[in-house]
Amino acid sequence: MPNDARRLRTTVDAGVLEGRIRDGVASFLGVPYAAPPFGPNRMRPPEPVVPWQGIRDAGRMGPTAPKGDYPLPFQPLFPEVEIEGDECLNLNVWTPDPGASGLPVLVWVHGGSFVNGSNSVAEYDGAAFAGSGVVCVAINYRLAAEGFLFFDDEVANLGLRDQVAALEWVRDNIAAFGGDPGNVTVAGESAGAMSITTLLAMPSAAGLFARAITQSGAAAHTLSPEQGLTVSRLLAETLGVPATRDAVAAVPLDRLVQAAAELVDEVQTNADPAKWGSLALSKLPFAPVVDGTVLPVHPLDAAHAGTSAAVPLLTGWNRDEARLFLVPPNLLNAIDEPTLLAAAGAYGVGTEHVEVYRTARPGASAGDLLAAVITDWFYAIPALRYAEARAAGGAGPTWVYRFDHLEPSDNHGLGACHGSEVPFVFRTEGDDSVRARIGDRPSPSAAATAHEAWASFAREGTPGWEPYDTTRRPTALIAEKLHVADDPARDERRVWDGIR
Q: What residues are annotated to the active site?
């Protein structure tokens, strides 16, 4: 925090906080929303914060949840922050005016495949949202085995329970920062977006937010109980302990974090389908489990049934999502035609379907075509199917967009890849930490366009174009300017009509 920032105080349920104000934005950082999840609380549901005496300094980021490293090829693209301490269930708040009332609120749920990330990552600075009249809150939650290991023991989905606890804190305390607890938009990217479609299906989250934004992640990527038990068994075997919650919770934290990170690295870089089954495609060994209690049904089924129908949704993905997973490990240019056809076949895409992609991309390499297929399987089609399920369930409006800014020549072949949109949405595109991902010349116009779509949705309840329907399928294409197209990439979308 800069030394010339002024100090100011506000009071929440647990005590008095002292934050900072700079350039018209007040920030309160590292604020605990639940008790430390260690000792007797380890691998158990979140407990309430213990009130503090006196004035708590909220001038710096709080501890991060225990986590391993990203797989090596991705570490330069997603710089991690490690802050030691027990109070990792904390949140950051940026507000234009703590003395105001009724300001809209946006709560950010970070991504990272449910095993990485934190609210202290530089590109998640919420000052730009505050400058746009929105109180911005960024939360931490437990990751990997601590947050998502499943044992079929009625203590499932702890990371999601953390998110619910954070939203309950927002409901009870956000007025102290000028926010309106009845006007909360919950937003997330990647694992954060998958979390949000899950929250929309959870009874415990009902009523805690009025709107939702899901970027690059949708309802298809949850685990069945059988998949969850497979992961817990494999992790327990690696640790040499029984596959029970108590046995794993007795493992030293650093050892558990390392074992979980190694498991993730295996499934993301060298997954044996005979060992991992469908997880060899999804690459997510730690994720929300449809356990029947915390998450009663699959989020897609919940949408079809009209659960959370009153919550408007803004959902989108990036044009070149999968290039992130093929370019850094030097795989994209190594893909030849037989590899393309075999890999596409694993996703259910036959040779005739690959030709549809080829026709739409004259001159594309085999690697380019595979990236397009994987992008649709993992990101675009799940988002559209979720929008369609909401329509079938009689839900309120859903808006759809695709982020198209950045060509591969702009950022070392990545293009509009997974994670490229976040610095634009937060207006942190100028931060040095995102250069490796978005290049050296990010467009301020693209950032203004992307940011305003989200800010407008949080403020006014609309991003500025017409809602999606299954007849015209209007979709905003976001680049330096916003252009609405009806059913873009229609032929590729139709490829997936008979594929599940």
A: 190, 321, 418
